[in-house]
# Entry
Amino acid sequence: MNNPDIRNCRLCGGNAVVIDTRTTKDGHIRRRRKCLICGYRYNTLEVILYDGKEQQWI
Ligand SMILES: [Zn+2]
# Structure
């Protein structure tokens, strides 16, 4: 089970949920995430690969 909407916080390892999602001009997905535990916010940039898998870059 790999839910793209919830990832582990970089600081505390708690659940970080998506609070904003944007598609960039070149087709990447930029998500803004917020940790439910410590409140830390950060951005991730994700790329849809040719085989349909999603790769998280940042
Ligand atoms: Zn956290």
Summary: The pocket of zinc ion is lined by residues 9, 11-12, 14, 35, 37-38, 40 (CB under 6 Å). The beta strands are 6-8, 15-23, 29-35, 41-48, 54-56. Residues 49 and 55 are 7 Å apart (CA to CA).
